UniProtKB/TrEMBL annotation:
Keywords on record: Isomerase, Magnesium, Metal-binding, Phosphoprotein
Source lineage: Archaea, Methanobacteriati, Methanobacteriota, Stenosarchaea group, Halobacteria
Domain Alpha-D-phosphohexomutase alpha/beta/alpha: 2-130, 150-250, 255-363
GO biological process: carbohydrate metabolic process
Family of the protein in this entry: Belongs to the phosphohexose mutase family.
InterPro entries (UniProt xref): A-D-PHexomutase_a/b/a-I (IPR005844), A-D-PHexomutase_a/b/a-I/II/III (IPR016055), A-D-PHexomutase_a/b/a-II (IPR005845), A-D-PHexomutase_a/b/a-III (IPR005846), A-D-PHexomutase_C (IPR005843), A-D-PHexomutase_C_sf (IPR036900), Alpha-D-phosphohexomutase_SF (IPR005841), GlmM_arc-type (IPR024086)
The protein's name: Phosphoglucosamine mutase
Domain Alpha-D-phosphohexomutase C-terminal: start-end pairs: 387-445
Species assigned in the record: Natronoglomus mannanivorans
Listed EC numbers: 5.4.2.10
Length: 454
C-alpha cells in the first residue's frame, strides 16, 4: 500500500497531511463503505479540529451523515463504533510528535480495518472514483455528547472492580496531555484508586512531554510515583491505546515485561498468543512454560488483528496478544488495543502482588531501540541493503517476515523500516546490556555508513 501503513496514514500536519488529503481519504472511505452514517473522533492535537472538519466535509459530500464525537481516545471511538454499528474515522497520530497527525479507519465492528479493506479504500482514493451526492442529498453533521462517559461505563463492566477497590491502591497517572486525560483519571477513580496525575491537562502542544511513552519522556512519572508512594505508575500515548507502567519504586517497567506478566496470568496450555517479529524472548519463555503457541506477524496492529481473527476462526483460543510498546489485545473484551483497559487488568494483578514482583521473572533481558532517519527512498533502500548484508555475513538465524531479524540464540537484533515515519528502526535484545548495546551498535554503524554513501 502507498497511503496506509501499519497503523493508518500519518505525516506532518498541513505539510504531508493536509486538509485536502484528509478530505480525499474521507471521500474514498465514504464511497467504499457506502454507509448512511460514519463517526469522526480525534485526539488533542492542535490540528485535530481542522482535519476532522475536512473529514466531515468529505463524508458529507458523498452523502454520508456524520457523528462528530469530539476528543475521544481511539479505544473510546472503537467502543462507539461497535455500539452503534458504524464505521469511524479517528484523527490521531498516536505516539508521534506534536506536529504530526494522522487518519485511522475503524470498521462497524469497532476493529481497525484489515489490510484488504484498506487496499480497497486506497484504490478508490488513487483513482479518485468518489461518489458525489446531489445538493439535496449531502450528509448532515451532528455533535454527539456523552461518548467518553459511555466508554468509561463500559470499561467498568469488564474489569474486576471489587478486587482493585479492596486493595486501596494509589495510582500515579501520566496521560501525556492526550485523549486519555479526559477518561483515564475518572475511570481509575471509579475503580476505587487514589489517583494523582502529571501532564493531566489535554493540550495539543504537549508541553510536559512528547506523546510517545518511552523512558526518556517519563522521568516526571517516576518522580511522582516515589513522591506519592504510589503502587503503580501508568502512562499513555496520544490516543491512549497503549499503557506503560512504573513499579512501586518508581522504576520503569519495560513493555515486554508487562506483556509477559499479563500473558503468564492469561495463557493456559493449548492457547495461542500473537506478537510481532520484534517479540521479546520474555513472551517466548512464557508461552513455552505454559505450553501455549506463539504466532509472529509483521509489526503493526493490523497484522496482529488479522492473525488473531484467522486463529479464532479455526477454533483456537487467543486470550492475549500484543507488542512490547504497551499495545496489548484482550480479544475476549474487544479486538483492539486499549490503554485504560490494559491498566485495569494490570491493576488486578497489582492488587495481589507488588508490580516489582510481578515483572521480576522477566528482568533477565536488556533491550535497546535506536532509530535512523532518512531523507529519501535511496537512503532507506541503501540501509535495508546493508541490513541484508549484515544478515548474510552472520551465523545468526534470519527472519525476514518484517525487515531483517538476526537470532543468535542468546540474543537478537532487528532492522526494519517504520510504517509511519521516515525511519529505519533497530531493536536488539540480550541477557546483558553490553551484548544488546553491541548488537544494536553494529547494525546502526552498518546502516549509517550505507546511508552516508547513498
Amino acid at each position: 500500500m502507498n497511503v496506509f501503513g501499519s497503523s493508518g496514514t500519518r505525516g506532518v500536519a498541513n505539510e504531508e497531511l493536509t486538509p485536502e488529503f484528509v478530505l480525499r481519504v474521507a471521500k474514498a472511505a465514504g464511497t467504499t463503505w457506502g454507509d448512511k452514517r460514519v463517526a469522526i473522533a480525534r485526539d488533542t492535537r492542535l490540528t485535530g479540529g481542522m482535519l476532522a472538519d475536512a473529514a466531515a466535509s468529505g463524508l458529507a459530500s458523498v452523502g454520508t451523515d456524520v457523528d462528530r464525537l469530539g476528543i475521544v481516545s481511539t479505544p473510546g471511538a472503537q467502543a462507539y463504533a461497535e455500539r452503534e454499528g458504524i464505521a469511524t474515522i479517528v484523527i490521531t497520530a498516536s505516539h508521534n510528535p506534536p506536529q504530526y497527525n494522522g487518519v485511522k479507519l475503524v470498521g462497524t465492528d469497532g476493529i481497525e480495518l484489515t489490510i484488504a479493506d484498506l487496499e480497497e479504500i486506497e484504490e478508490t482514493l488513487l483513482a479518485e472514483a468518489f461518489e458525489t451526492a446531489p445538493w439535496n442529498a449531502t450528509g448532515r453533521v451532528r455533535e454527539i455528547d456523552g461518548v467518553r462517559r459511555a466508554y468509561i461505563d463500559e470499561l467498568l463492566e469488564h474489569v474486576d472492580r471489587e478486587t482493585i477497590a479492596d486493595a486501596g491502591l494509589t495510582v500515579a497517572l501520566d496521560p501525556g496531555h492526550g485523549a486519555g486525560s479526559l477518561t483515564s483519571p475518572e475511570f481509575l477513580r471509579k475503580l476505587g484508586c487514589r489517583v494523582v496525575t502529571v501532564n493531566g491537562q489535554p493540550d495539543g502542544h504537549f508541553p510536559g512531554r512528547d506523546p510517545e511513552p518511552v523512558p526518556e519522556n517519563l522521568a516526571d512519572l517516576g518522580r511522582l510515583v516515589r513522591a506519592t508512594d504510589a503502587d503503580l505508575g501508568i502512562a499513555h500515548d496520544g490516543d491512549a491505546d497503549r499503557a506503560i507502567f512504573f513499579d512501586e519504586d518508581g522504576t520503569y517497567i519495560h513493555g515486554d515485561a508487562t506483556l509477559a506478566a499479563l500473558a503468564a496470568a492469561e495463557l493456559e496450555a493449548g492457547d495461542t498468543t500473537v506478537s510481532a517479529v520484534n517479540v521479546s524472548q520474555r513472551l517466548v519463555d512464557v508461552a513455552n512454560d505454559v505450553g501455549a503457541d506463539l504466532e509472529l506477524t509483521p509489526i503493526g496492529s493490523t497484522n496482529i488483528i488479522t492473525r488473531i481473527e484467522e486463529l479464532e476462526e479455526n477454533g483456537q483460543r487467543v486470550p492475549i496478544a500484543g507488542e512490547g510498546n504497551g499495545g496489548i489485545f484482550f480479544p475476549a473484551y474487544r479486538l483492539s488495543r486499549d490503554g485504560a483497559y490494559t491498566a485495569a487488568r494490570f491493576l488486578e494483578l497489582v492488587a495481589e502482588r507488588p508490580a516489582s514482583e510481578l515483572v521480576e521473572p522477566y528482568d533477565d533481558y536488556a533491550n535497546v531501540r535506536r532509530n535512523i532517519h532518512y531523507e529519501s527512498t535511496a537512503e532507506r533502500d541503501a540501509m535495508l541493503d546493508a541490513a541484508a548484508n549484515q544478515a548474510h555475513e552472520s551465523d545468526a538465524e534470519l527472519n525476514t517476515r518484517d525487515g531483517y531479524r538476526l537470532d543468535h540464540g542468546d540474543a537478537w537484533v532487528l532492522a526494519r523500516p517504520s510504517g509511519t515515519e521516515p525511519l529505519v528502526r533497530i531493536y536488539a535484545e540480550a541477557r546483558d546490556q553490553s551484548r544488546a548495546d553491541g548488537l544494536a551498535a553494529d547494525m546502526y554503524d552498518a546502516l549509517a555508513d550505507a546511508k552516508a554513501d547513498a
